[in-house]
C-alpha cells in the first residue's frame, strides 16, 4: 500500500474550502482527491486545485459529478449532454495534470437496465480518456452488475471500490475474483450496514479485515483513500483539525492492518 489519501470535501458544515484543506495538511495527509462536480462551489474547481497544490498536496484523481447520470442509459438529449460534459471534464483534467478520473455508472436503486445505448456512450468517454492518457475507474454505488459489465466491455478501465457502499448496499457481497488487478482506487469509510453514513473507519460495523483481505486478493497496492464525511451529525461538534486528525489516525491503523494481513498471507 502506498500512502493515505483523503477527499477534499465541499460539504463540511460551517467550514470553508480553505479551512478544510488547511486541516488536511495539519493532519499530515499528503495526498487528496478533488470533487470535479461542475457545481457552483464558493471556490471554483480550478482555484481549489491551485490552492491544494500550493499547500503541497498531491492530487491522485478527480471524482466527476453524477447528477442525472441515469440519463446516460436513456434515449434523449440529456444523455448526449452528459457525454459532452464528461468529455469536457476529461479535457479539463488533462490540462490540469490529473491522470485518473472516477465516475458513477448509475445512481439510486431504481436504475435503468444496461443497454447498447448507454454502453456506446460510455465507450465514447472511455475511448477519449484513453487517447488523453487518463485512467477511468467506475464506482460501485447501490446496485450490482454495472461495474462488472463495463470493465468487461472496456479493457483499459477499472473500478473504484467503495467499501461503505459494499457494506450497506451490497451487504458485504461482491465477487472480488472478477476484479483482480482492476481496482484502480478505493473509497474507505464506515457505516452500520443500513445507511451510507460515511463514518470514520472503526466507528461502524464494517469488517475491515475482510475489506483488506479483498484488496490483497485483487493485488491492490495504491493509495488508501479515506472518504469519511465531516458533514455527518456525529462530527458536528468537532473542529476541522480534530476531525481530520482523528481520520488520519484511523487511516494509519488501516495501513498497519493492511501490512499485517499481507504479511500473514505471505506466511500461509
User: Largest sheet, if any?
Assistant: 8 strands, parallel
List the helices and strands in order: EHEHEHEHEHEHEHEH
DSSP summary, beta strand count: 8
The gyration radius over C-alpha positions equals 18 Å
- Termini gap: 20 Å
Which percent range fits the helix content?
A: 40-55%
Apparent shape: globular
Overall pLDDT level: 96
Judged by helices, strands and strand pairing, the structural class is alpha/beta
List keywords for this structure.
globular, 268 residues, eight-stranded parallel sheet
In short:
With 268 residues, the chain is of the alpha/beta class. It has helices at 17-26, 45-54, 77-95, 116-132, 146-153, 163-168, 208-217, 240-267, and strands spanning 4-8, 31-36, 58-64, 100-103, 135-139, 158-162, 183-187, 224-226.
Summarize the structure in words.
This protein is α/β, with parallel strands linked by helices. The protein is built from 8 helices and 8 strands. The chain has helices at residues 17-26, 45-54, 77-95, 116-132, 146-153, 163-168, 208-217, 240-267, and strands at residues 4-8, 31-36, 58-64, 100-103, 135-139, 158-162, 183-187, 224-226. Strands 7-6-5-4-3-2-1-8 form an 8-stranded parallel beta sheet. α1 crosses α8, α3 runs parallel beside α4 (116-132) and α7 (208-217) packs across α8. The two termini are 20 Å apart.
Amino acid at each position: 500500500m502506498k500512502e493515505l489519501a483523503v477527499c477534499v470535501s465541499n460539504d463540511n458544515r460551517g467550514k470553508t474550502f480553505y479551512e478544510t484543506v488547511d486541516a488536511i495538511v495539519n493532519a499530515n495527509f499528503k495526498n487528496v482527491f478533488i470533487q470535479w462536480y461542475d457545481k457552483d462551489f464558493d471556490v471554483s474547481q480550478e482555484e481549489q486545485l491551485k490552492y491544494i497544490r500550493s499547500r503541497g498536496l498531491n492530487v491522485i484523481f478527480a471524482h466527476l459529478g453524477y447528477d442525472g447520470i441515469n440519463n446516460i442509459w436513456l434515449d434523449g438529449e440529456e444523455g448526449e449532454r452528459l457525454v459532452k460534459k464528461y468529455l469536457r471534464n476529461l479535457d479539463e483534467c488533462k490540462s490540469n495534470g490529473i491522470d485518473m478520473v472516477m465516475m458513477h455508472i448509475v445512481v439510486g436503486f431504481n436504475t435503468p437496465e444496461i443497454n447498447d445505448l448507454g454502453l456506446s456512450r460510455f465507450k465514447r468517454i472511455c475511448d477519449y480518456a484513453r487517447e488523453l492518457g487518463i485512467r477511468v475507474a467506475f464506482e460501485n454505488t447501490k446496485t450490482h452488475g454495472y461495474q462488472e459489465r463495463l470493465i468487461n466491455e472496456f479493457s483499459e478501465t477499472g473500478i473504484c471500490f467503495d467499501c461503505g457502499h459494499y457494506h450497506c448496499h451490497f451487504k458485504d457481497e461482491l465477487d472480488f475474483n472478477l476484479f483482480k488487478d482492476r481496482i484502480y482506487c478505493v473509497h474507505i469509510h464506515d457505516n452500520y450496514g443500513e445507511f451510507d453514513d460515511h463514518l470514520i473507519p472503526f466507528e461502524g460495523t464494517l469488517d475491515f479485515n475482510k475489506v483488506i483481505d479483498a484488496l490483497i486478493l485483487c493485488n491492490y497496492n495504491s493509495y488508501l483513500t479515506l472518504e469519511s464525511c465531516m458533514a455527518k451529525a456525529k462530527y458536528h461538534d468537532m473542529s476541522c483539525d480534530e476531525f481530520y486528525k482523528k481520520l488520519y489516525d484511523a487511516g494509519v491503523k488501516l495501513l498497519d492492518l493492511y501490512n499485517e494481513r499481507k504479511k500473514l498471507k505471505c506466511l500461509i
